[in-house]
Input
Amino acid sequence: MNEYILQTNALTKRYGNFAAVSNVSLNIRKGAIYGLVGRNGAGKTTFMKMICSLAAPTQGSFTLCGETYPKLSGARAKVGNLIEEPGIYANLSAYDNLRAQAMLCGKDDPAKIRQLLEIIGLSKAGKKHAGKFSLGMRQRLGIGLALIGDPEMLVLDEPINGLDPAGVAEIRETLLHLNQERGITVLISSHILGELSKLCTDYGFLDRGELIREITQEGLLAECTESVRVQVNDTGAAQAALNRIGIMLIKAEDNGILRVSECTERTDEITEALVRSGVRVFEIAKQGTDLEGYYLNMLGGKEQAS
Amino acid sequence: MKNLIRQTIFVMRKKTSTYVIPAILFCFAMLSCYIEAGSQSIETTDLHCYFTYVFGSCIGVAMLLCAIGSVLFLRTDLNDGFIKNIAGSTGTKMQYYLPKLLVLAGYDFLLLCSLAAGALLGSLLFLNGLEAFDLPAFLAYFGAVWLLLTAFSVLISFLVFSIRSGSAPMAFAVVLGSGMFYNLFYGILTMLLAKAEIEFDFSKVSLTMKMVMLDPSAGNSAMLSACVLAFCYILVFGYLARLTLVKKDIA
Output
């Protein structure tokens, strides 16, 4: 049995000469929460649109829920999506919007719709037209629409945009619940990288339409682990001095820089050991990074994630 | 397809315009009967029945309202972005388009029924009721007009799917439905052809003119030619609309 719910093979989308997505080959495990990270225009939305049959790939192919593009008739029903703005009928209530979507999926069950309204926190919206909803309510309704067909996979493009902190936390809890309790795989993009890091098990980094890195949460944690950066005049002597006090995880970099990845709380001992050995210390600093820092470092640290 | 038809009807039932447009047509037909009773422009002894006469004379308005209704109906999914949810649930673009067309044809039928109801009530209240009414001839006329109106809706669907803007298809539809397009476009063409000493009656191939000029008492051959024209329009513009849908990504 295939362990991946989505596999893309050199997926490409061009508009004229502009490649919005270029040769993206990625794999999403069943049950994963896959974070798609990239700045505006990196190709995240276009990639998601192709997966959700809203845009046709120019080249490449993909396999979704065991079916290969373009024959996705069964797979489509197994994927719920919220791409860009939620698609909702402005003149209908939240209940009626969910009902319209449930009819499409052939799952028009009023009890289930009411249960879903509870899950997305819109049970008290009553007959209010969705066109008069706040941004947060619209986002929650969009997630509800994506969930109505009991999908195996959710594709969510910026689902927490415009939500207040409480709303963001609610959505996070809902997604984690759906992932852990129902085993729903989630492909999610967001500009709020801190929030993604609380959710995701895997990450894919897109830049200018290309997939520049794929990494698991474990791999990311390993790369983002706290370290002590020391700049000295003699890296060989410094390494020997640190080894003598039991510090072995040391990596030498350019320009006399050593990166110490253990005992990072013992900066005073590190400094003392180096000075006693006659090593001149120019700079010593604790370093650690989060997803955002990792992402910015990967892009060269010059441009901010917009 | 069954699911999409159910969903489309459900959403349509919730739209105010679904009720307002047939109601306007109903009132207009009744008003026409009232005006007719005042002016007495046709003889009661004429072969024409007042009901059929009023029904036929209101087809132009029905066409205009059909144009407006079709644009409002077809743009619902596009305006609100719900098409993104639908596209994720339907297999092909044709599976999206075909149910929409079927429901639209049903809506056109409803429009003609409300026109017939208004004309009937008006005739009964203000005119001579159903005197000289020829049911088989009227049904043949009703069927031909329904087919022409459906073909007109297919033409409108092509406009709606090919123009991304929300207001432009409505403007085009009104220009088409009001007969302005025929007067302008075919008028210019006729003038140009006349200069080349070629005579051609464009009203024979114009869907809108065919609808307006079709005589309720015309024989079977006239009804048949109207149906053939309607089928041609449905095939050509249905194909073009499908092609446009398939080619375009969903925004």
